[in-house]
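If your schedule permits, I should be very grateful for your opinion on a structural question. The matter concerns a single protein, recorded as an amino acid sequence and a row of backbone structure tokens. Could you please explain, in whatever detail you think fit, how the structure tokens follow from the sequence? I set the record out below, with my sincere thanks for your time.

——
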Amino acid sequence: MPSDTSAPTAPPPANYRALVRNSEFAGLYAGFTLTVAATTLSGFALGTLVDDQTGSPFLTAVSMYGATFATVLGALTLMSVADGRRPRRTLVALQCVALVGVAAHAIPGLPLGARFALLLVVGFFQSLGTGTRMGLLAEVVPISSYALARSLMNITSGGMAVLGYAIGALLLRHIGPQEVFVVAAVLTGLGLVVVATTVREHSIRLTRRPGLRQTWTTNTALFSHPGRRSLLLNLWVPNGLIVGCTALFISYAPGHAGALLAAGSAGMLLGDLTVGRLLTADQRRRCAFALRLLLAGPYLLFALHPPMLVATTAVFFASAGYAATLPLQEQLLALTPDPVRGQVQGVESAGRMTWQGIGAALAGGVAQYLTPGTAVTALAAVSVAVTVVSRPFVVRARAVRVEKADA
């Protein structure tokens, strides 16, 4: 397969500082950072607004993660645009849609039904934006630096979430949710400007016109591969169930939800920093199973209704387990043909986000009939079970990857 002459030819960056010297990566990274900050602020504001108006754990959980339900529609219909000939233009257009969606939430008196409809629309286009961004990421950095780049973006996501939840909680003590939505819209607009002015067009080597047929063709090939199926299962389900646990924090402890959410984001940051920066690829693969167990195990303590300090500490350490996504994503990329990297990564991200929405809905539904603490414990137990049962299939996928590399 011919190589893309626009791909970097310099030696792979050895650390994060060297990585951000790549101006295009720096642009993608800054735009991503601003988008995460905006999403965190708007999600927390919306969850608080819905909780105040309805008092429903189910609606509150769904409002915080409802956009993820629509990402699966993007994965199933138009995700092939992530591998189109003009990915920069596509990403800028999708950022514009995100800006309109966030700004619309700032309209005073907007009915809850309209807010949930906005979540679905924004979630659909958000999934396409993620696929396009990840496809560009694979173009602007060498493949050998892909895990380092994803690690930095994951760390930033955790860091921005920590700040977003903390600042969101502080802002909501002094201003209303509508004003917080305005702040989120400003951050989204800044992200749009950064991407538009720093990222150039790349050819992601698509051989056919993007559209519904091309999306289905690639997805059929993706899911027909047993190794990729097992990796996607482990990237989606255990994480989604634990996100469902976090969606109950507002209902579980309204006065301490910001601290719990910030602790989870801080733990995620620590895990990604340690696993992505300090471990080799082989070490990451060896610790992936333990990390997936760590992700869910501490949440079992919620069955005992622990003191808030203990609960916050448990959430912090558990969230380090999210770093298990890094070795799984590396394995998935190794099994992905170059021309469809964007779509496959977009499907992976969309499925992960969709399962976050499913986890939030499941958690909220269980909490409607049981206590939020009981619901957290139940979802954590199922996450552990899925991780343990699926482990042999992940090991088999690793063997397939090694055989492919040796071929």
